[in-house]
């Protein structure tokens, strides 16, 4: 298998995984909404008890909101990073294909 084919396959795979993570983040919004309500009720019910989630001290519903925003941002950053790496690999594969075709046909510039 040629290097440009391997780059293309890796790029396609990473692009798919990155897109899947971003789509999953969007699809999990309803479940997240329910969890946010449950965690908010727990924070209210356990007033005075020190609760920490993802490094954030939970004092009120704004803190609960911040926890879920932070989780969503983390998923979005991972998905976007993987998607970007996949795109760069695909672009590299296309450039490698073009370079090999130019060398194969002996095409030179002006």
Properties at a glance:
110 residues; mainly alpha
Give structural notes.
It is a single chain. This protein has one domain (3-102). The chain has three helices and two strands; from the N terminus they run ααββα. With 110 residues, the chain is mostly helical. The longest helix has 45 residues, at 61-105. It has helices spanning 3-27, 29-45, 61-105; strands at 51-53, 56-58. It is rod-shaped, with a radius of gyration of 23 Å. It is 79% helix and 5% strand.
Helix content: over 70%
Kindly estimate the percentage of residues that lie in beta strands according to DSSP.
5-15%
Q: Measured on Cα atoms, how large is the radius of gyration?
A: 23 Å
- Helices, by number, come to 3
Strand order in space, largest sheet: 1-2
Overall pLDDT score: 84
Strands, total number: 2
Look at the helices and sheets and give the structural class.
mainly alpha
Provide a concise account of the structure shown:
The protein has three helices and two strands; from the N terminus they run ααββα. The chain is mostly helical.
Layout of secondary structure:
Layout: H1 3-27, H2 29-45, E1 51-53, E2 56-58, H3 61-105
Antiparallel strand pairs: 1-2
Helix pairs in contact: 1-3, 2-3
